[in-house]
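Propose amino acids for all 658 sites.
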């Protein structure tokens, strides 16, 4: 079935609004400066343990070297008359002294321990051998006693100190809950500049005023000019809004405070407002600084919106931010940059002059900008000689800087899996197929009936993409399952900014091609066209309700209904037209879809032979390209069809069967 691109926005609104991304090289994050490291907490306890252990060791270690004798050996020496004088320890029954072994030049010191109590018989034995003995009363080691006495008190005191510090830390965490969580960058950081951002010269020129003001504020004061206090970066996700904010700080050489909208939110009411105050106090201490708030829509939504009123904590945070941006005190030298991809739900008070009084659109990159972005992300890669980044840039319209960075990385991964040391053109082609269409599902095996139905389904899309005059050129068609699709018909849309009524009609007709082809060949329908019908109906609804492309409705437009929880309240999201008008809108949408279905039937019946040839080619080879489809159509019809001009085509938008 046809996996068509979503309807483009009406011409006045341009492209969508964005999120963070990277259109240049990734810069290493420069976080908050940390204090110089000191001694770890456990070092004090370790030092005390070493001191106590040393004292105990020096007290208990032996101070003299002596020979250890058994009790029986000692008695033998006594009987031999070699022992002359000993000292008896009454407490431990230890005996120490000297004896003169036979043949020794000098007496030898010895120690021994009696097996039993020293009785009168043993003493008589000493007297008989002429041994002089003295008694030694045991003395307590005062160091050991002192340590034994003080150790329990030391443990108790240490435990109390630990508990006090733990309680103080918890109290400090509670007291610091209202402090800002912004990451602070010094004046020489971040080092990102405009030179690190590829393309976007118009955005750079528009935002350079902020840099000049922060560098030379007196120049603006002399003439009486006032630089916008707040600048809102709006663009699709991945276009590099965060990178632009860092580049402004790097170019201006001032302090940079970075915070996300979710950092202000907490379970306690009033914490967000306290963090906003602390954030601006930090900026004032820097003198000249840039405050960057990412994802501003998380705290800047319209107040009082949603069922049951607004969110108290979020609204108090927003009120405090409004007060800081335009309160009684002016903050000279402080510029606020913010990024969002939902400017439609922001509170009007944020966007008025004096606050965020300038919106800078960071759009999706054009072809020349995509070339520069691809070169930036490819400069540290090993590229093959057949890689042409200009061709790849033309083949990737609608991709943001982050998408292009991911494309280059996917190509490198494909090259590694292929066993190559260079990234070649085939790797970029496979990476683009994977990013746009999804991974190839090699494990899925279709039955012969499903495979034949898929071939005719995709063949119907391919035939109409080839013969319709205002549609996107056909790139290739396959019946290999990719992503969530059983087959894919891939069109290469030309890069354009406005879309005609004929383009949308041909797009709806092509979306009906798979469903109609199955009806013609098999005479019944299946669920494979569900996504085709959904996208065709979506385009027709936009044509009738918003773009004034219905002759019966005329030049009237009704926007899509807003969700209650996304910035609109219950009453403002009510339907803007009557039941009679709603019935007419439904009739026009239905008429448009039925007309394009009949148109697709007529074209496929006219090219019935070509449809069979394309389906058979798909069953034989599973993948065929656009020129071959055109050749099969000519072969079946015997006449010329429009040139697909694949060389000038750009990126692929898949038409897929579920």
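Proposal:
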């Amino acid at each position: 079935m046809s996996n068509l691109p979503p309807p483009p926005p009406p011409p006045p609104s341009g492209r969508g609004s964005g999120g963070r991304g990277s259109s240049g090289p990734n810069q290493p994050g420069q976080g908050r400066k940390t204090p110089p490291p000191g001694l770890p907490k456990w070092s004090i306890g370790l030092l005390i343990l070493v001191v106590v252990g040393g004292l105990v060791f020096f007290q208990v270690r032996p101070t003299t070297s002596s020979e250890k004798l058994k009790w029986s050996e000692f008695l033998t020496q006594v009987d031999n008359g070699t022992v002359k004088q000993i000292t008896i320890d009454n407490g431990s029954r230890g005996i120490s002294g000297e004896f003169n072994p036979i043949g020794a030049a000098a007496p030898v010191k010895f120690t021994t321990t009696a097996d039993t109590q020293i009785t009168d018989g043993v003493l008589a034995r000493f007297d008989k051998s002429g041994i002089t003995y003295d008694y030694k009363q045991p003395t307590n080691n005062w160091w050991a006693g002192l340590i034994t006495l003080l150790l329990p008190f030391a443990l108790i005191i240490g435990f109390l100190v630990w508990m006090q510090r733990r309680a103080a830390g918890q109290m400090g965490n509670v007291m610091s809950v209202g402090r800002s969580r912004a990451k602070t960058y010094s004046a020489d950081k971040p080092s990102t500049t405009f030179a690190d951002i590829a393309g976007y010269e118009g955005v750079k020129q528009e935002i350079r005023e902020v840099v000049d003001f922060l560098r030379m504020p007196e120049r603006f004061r002399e003439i009486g000019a006032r630089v916008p206090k707040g600048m809102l970066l709006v663009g699709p996700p991945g276009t590099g809004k965060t990178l632009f904010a860092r580049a402004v700080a790097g170019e201006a050489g001032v302090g940079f405070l970075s915070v996300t909208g979710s950092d202000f939110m907490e379970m306690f009411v009033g914490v967000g407002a306290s963090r906003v105050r602390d954030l601006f106090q930090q900026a004032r201490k820097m003198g000249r600084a840039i405050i960057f708030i990412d994802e501003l829509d998380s705290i800047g939504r319209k107040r009082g919106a949603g069922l049951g009123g607004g969110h108290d904590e979020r609204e108090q945070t927003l009120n405090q931010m409004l007060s800081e941006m335009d309160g009684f005190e002016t903050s000279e030298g402080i510029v606020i940059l913010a990024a969002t991809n939902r400017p439609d739900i922001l509170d009007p008070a944020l966007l008025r002059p004096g606050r965020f009084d300038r919106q800078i659109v960071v759009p999706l990159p054009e072809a020349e900008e995509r070339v520069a972005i691809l070169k930036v992300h490819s400069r540290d890669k090993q590229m093959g000689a057949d890689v042409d980044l200009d061709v790849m840039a033309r083949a990737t319209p609608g991709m943001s800087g982050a998408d292009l960075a991911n494309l280059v990385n996917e190509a490198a991964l494909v090259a590694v899996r292929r066993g190559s040391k260079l990234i070649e053109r085939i790797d970029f082609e496979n990476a683009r197929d994977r990013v746009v269409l999804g991974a190839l599902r090699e494990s899925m095996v279709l039955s012969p009936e499903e495979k034949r139905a898929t071939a005719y389904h995709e063949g119907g899309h391919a035939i109409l993409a080839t013969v319709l005059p205002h549609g996107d050129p056909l790139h290739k068609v396959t019946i290999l399952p990719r992503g969530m699709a059983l087959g894919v018909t891939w069109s290469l849309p030309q890069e354009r900014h406005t879309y005609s009524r004929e383009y949308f009609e041909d797009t709806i007709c092509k979306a009906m091609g798979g469903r109609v082809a199955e009806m013609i060949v098999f005479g019944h329908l299946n669920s494979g066209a569900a996504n085709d019908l959904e996208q065709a109906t979506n385009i027709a609804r936009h044509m009738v309700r918003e773009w004034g492309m219905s002759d019966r409705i005329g030049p009237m437009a009704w926007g899509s209904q807003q969700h209650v929880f996304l910035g609109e309240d219950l009453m403002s999201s009510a339907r803007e037209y009557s039941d009679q008008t709603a019935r007419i809108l439904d009739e026009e949408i239905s008429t448009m879809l039925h007309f394009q279905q009949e148109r697709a039937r007529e074209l496929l019946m006219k090219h019935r032979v070509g449809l069979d040839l394309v389906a058979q080619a798909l069953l034989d080879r599973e993948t065929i390209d656009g020129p071959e489809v055109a050749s099969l159509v000519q072969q079946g019809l015997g006449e010329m069809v429009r040139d697909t001009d694949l060389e000038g085509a750009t990126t692929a938008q898949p038409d897929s069967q579920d």
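The chain has a mean pLDDT of 75. The radius of gyration is 42 Å.
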